[in-house]
Amino acid sequence: MRIKFHTIFSALLLFQFFLSVNSGFAQAVPGGLIKPGELWPDNNRNHVQAHGGGIIKVGDTYFWFGEYRAKDNDPDLRYVGCYSSKDLTNWTFRNTVIKISDPENLGKNWVLERPKVYYNKKTQKYVMYMHIDDGNYKLARVGVAVSDKVDGSYSYLKSFRPLGHESRDIGQFVDDDGAAYLIFEDRPFGFRIASLSDDYLNVEKEICLIPFHMEGGALIHYKGLYYAIGSALTGWRPNPNKYATATSLAGPWSEFKDIAPPETLTYGAQSTMIVKVVGDKSTTAIFMGDIWKPSEQWNSSYLWMPLNIGEGKLSLPAPKPWHLDVKSGKWNYTPSAK
Ligand code: GAL
């Protein structure tokens, strides 16, 4: 009897110890840490497949879309993955929202890259833009697909050259007033920013041509200034990404400067988007980049870091694990700080 009591007592103590350790951890790191460059497990413990991606917020939930390049993909199909999160750190796999075979007879190595999804309030549809190309990247078009549900199956509608121009890497920008823009790389001329039509199904009006050759285009409107980030054109290999500023999207834009010490080649990453997290205490601008692994794309990882930004200056800190509190909008390297 005495032994039994002792055993139960010890078990209770052990249980209490586990509870305190776990709840202590949960309190110190709500949501956990973002670990740049590491594999990023989703709710199923699979590495997130959302490369060259973009993020939108629907209600209190973030949705991350990107190239779904899982090792066991059917090589004839192209996939777009969709994940959801409330804290931008823990991601739940929702669906492969695109899983299609060559929609325009482009041949074996056809390309679907850099998908970005916009929500159109008027039509209540989710509209996806993506780079569509043949295996030699000669077609240079955008593709458009729509869905009634954010994580539903998107129907492929068409492809075209925006405003008649070549378009390879695309980026997405939604301004603070809700206006939606497409950023696209036009090889002969540079980097274009254009507004979308009312229903978002077309690219309507050019806002600016920045005569600078940049891919992975990303924009943020921060404290009265626009900041544009892009990478040089070096394929899957990293290069020093650069930024410029302007008081209006139409420019004039400042000269381009490095976002990180150039010898680090943007710490091995290439820009894809800047996520603006507006909390009740602060605003954090997150650099979202891809660390490509061309020979095993399914292991390509992500470099997300909070940018140092303000008064016309922008820099990407050296990557290390950090914690984000989406409610306050604050971030910190030390898990306990809020
Ligand atoms: C990169 C581009 C990627 C992909 C790659 C192919 O420059 O950013 O999205 O197109 O080239 O080589």
From TrEMBL:
Keyword Hydrolase: yes
InterPro entries: Glyco_hydro_43 (IPR006710), Glyco_hydro_beta-prop_sf (IPR023296)
GO biological-process terms attached to the record: carbohydrate metabolic process
Signal peptide from the UniProt entry: 1-28
A matching Pfam family: Glyco_hydro_43
Keyword match Chloroplast: no
Annotated GO MF terms: hydrolase activity, hydrolyzing O-glycosyl compounds
Keywords, ordered alphabetically: Glycosidase, Hydrolase, Signal
Sites annotated Important for catalytic activity, responsible for pKa modulation of the active site Glu and correct orientation of both the proton donor and substrate: D169
Protein family per UniProt: Belongs to the glycosyl hydrolase 43 family.
The protein's name: Glycosyl hydrolases family 43
Lineage, top ranks: Bacteria, Pseudomonadati, Bacteroidota, Sphingobacteriia, Sphingobacteriales
